[in-house]
What does this fold into?
Amino acid sequence: MPGPSTISFSLAMLVLANLLPLGGVVFLGWSVFQVMALFWLENVIVGAFNLLRMATQMLKGQFGIIVLMAFFTVHYGMFCAVHGLFVMGIFGHDQPIGAGKMNASPFGAFTVMERMIEADPTYWWAAVGLVASHGVSFLLNFIIGGEWKRVDAGTLMFAPYKRVVILHLTILAGAGAIALLGAPIWGLVVLVIIKTLVDAWSHLAERKRLAGAHAPSGPVAP
It folds into this structure.
């Protein structure tokens, strides 16, 4: 298992990354949609790093993981697309970029993110912070900490879903309540804090789970 100092550093990075949207809410007046869109983007980031995790299994001779990577890309991609459309459909009226209509397609969410960054460059740094947080955990815990040696293909295949479902059911419920109340700033602050706490719990639970994981002795069947 990665050492306590390594886990503490990656946890600190996670909290710091979550402080960036909190700062956006408190100091820049970010809307519910801006916060929700950023959390949606984190789903995509999680999926991208999970593909990198799955790719490490080829270092153990498990080349059949390529088939699972393709399946994961399609399945998780559809999951993210539906979630993105859901976020835009419910909270899109709150967007700070009124020029033109939103494109109601899986790629429309990326277009909206690009326009939001153009409208508010500080939004870019929040997105970079999320990439850095997950990147540090991938490098320190999964690679250097040796989690990739102990995990199996099946665990990696379904690893993101538990975190994403628990986290975003909480977020969607909270954001819906905030929208009904007229998006008070204190409500958004509480939402970001709750998201940070759930995120931290998921991070530590994953470290514990992967510490006890055992890799299969043979290659994954294609």
